[in-house]
Amino acid sequence: MRWCFEDTEVYIADDRESALSHLRRVEPQVVTLDLGLPPDPGGSSEGFALLDEILRLAPNTKIIVVTGREEKENAVKAVGNGACDFYQKPLDADILSFVVNRAFRLYELEKENIEFNRSQQSSTLKGLIANSPQMLKICRTVEKIAPADVTTLILGETGTGKEVIAKALHDLSPRCDKAFSAINCAAIPENLLESELFGYEKGAFTGANQTKKGKIEMTDGGTLFLDEIGDMPMPLQAKLLRFLQERVIERVGGVREIPVDVRVVCATHQDIQNLISMGDFREDLYYRVSEITLNIPPLKDREGDAVLIAQSLLHNFSNQLDRPNLNFTDDAIGAIREYSWPGNVREMINKVKRAAIMADGKRVTAEDLELSEPCNTTDSVLNLRQVRETAEKHAIQHALQIAQYNMAQTARLLGVTRPTLYNLTDKYKLATNEQNTD
Asked: Which of 79, 195, 294, 373 has its CA at a distance of 20 to 30 angstroms from the CA of residue 338?
């Protein structure tokens, strides 16, 4: 059976005690279990006892019961007790590989589903997927300030989800049943932004054939989100400041003051203090819009959130594209974790959507994601044995280079005997001075 799995790490146990020892030490994803174990090799009592213990200690482990042809009833009973599958002797390498690989796949799917559900539940804010301490702190702050009718300034890089936070403030506030309006101050020409915000009276300018309400007036009772407020022209900043102070507006070309009850949430990716020092943003307006300030960290600084968000996006895109059960490979997970994401969540949406379209089969690889930065997936390996071996190999290579491949000196640097050093160089297939005779 070991020979059937050359690319899989296999551990052999010949009784219940050694099997449980392996289970605790290496936490295998899949176990093949022969029910006829000593001291009852001719029966099944010991095998069923071990099956129960494995499921109790590692309930996510997939167990495949291996039985003889005359023991089909025991196989069915084992599946009923919690085994995921069974395989009947005599051994057929192809069939056994198929059954075991299917169990590995089932383990991966269940693990990804658990992680996805955890990501959905980690954040209490609608539309926000987060489990990092940084973002959970933001969530708690939003929950506290949402019921209070305070003007809020959200700071953060482009694509970090500032509008999602603004909508969460609205949804958790007493204004949730009223309108939520968003306007990007950088996307509208200066000569149109004023009329877009404050509205205009009929005849106020050429083409104004009728009176039109602005965004502020139309959002009466609700929440107005002013994105990229750092790009708002200085003359309009004065008019916005008056509205925030007096809570009244005047339409363009109008003389009548109109009272409006609106909660204002602002956002920008720019350094407001720098804009103030350069004279591009009013200091008094800054103090008015920043009664509460939220700083949204970039995706690279959110511990573990990148993988959670990517998995959620892939799940959504796989449903939209009618490609169910798309999942990331290990190298893709490593690439997502190591990439710096300069475009934040917006860049991730682009990368994951393209990968979902281009992936062959059900697995999305690092190559499909087209992440430009090389990722060091060994840094993210969680298996302690692999981590130790990688570190040991690097240390030996480094010592060999320092000692110029003098084995005696290398052994002294590493604090080991020469026979031990030779065993280690053989184990890791490292070149020594004896091998490099050129």
From this structure: 294
Count CB-CB contacts under 10 A for residue 218: 15
What are the φ/ψ torsions at residue 186 (nearest 5 degrees)? -90, -15
161-188, pLDDT tens digit by residue?
Answer: 999 999 999 999 999 999 999 999 999 9
Helix or strand or coil: residue 241?
Answer: helix
- DSSP 8-state class, residue 303: T
Beta strands in 52-141 (DSSP E): 62-67, 85-88
Rounded Cα distance between 316 and 359, Å, is 15
Alpha-carbon distances of 148 from 35, 110, 142, 173, 175, rounded to whole Å = 64, 41, 10, 8, 11
d(CA 157, CA 288): 22
Reported as a single tens digit per residue, the pLDDT across 336-378 is 988 999 999 999 999 999 999 998 878 888 889 988 654 444 4
Whether the CB-CB separation of 293 and 323 falls below 8 Å is answered with no
Contact 390, 427 (CB under 8 A): no
DSSP 181-231: EEEETTTS-HHHHHHHHHEE-TTSSTT--S-EE-HHHHTTTSEEEEETGGG
Contact in structure between 182 and 166 (CB atoms under 8 Å):
yes
Cβ atoms 318, 354 nearer than 8 A: no
CA distances, 409 to each of 317, 412, 413 (Å): 57, 5, 6
Q: Closest by alpha carbon to 182, among 161, 199, 195, 167? A: 167
HSE toward the beta carbon, residue 80, CA cutoff 13 A: 6
At which residue do the structure tokens 């005599």 appear?
90
Tokens for 403? 């000692």
Name the residue with tokens 């030779």: 422
Distance in angstroms (rounded) separating the CA atoms of residues 355 and 328: 10
Cβ proximity of 192 and 239 under 8 Å = no
**Phi and psi dihedrals of 44, rounded to 5?**
-135, 0
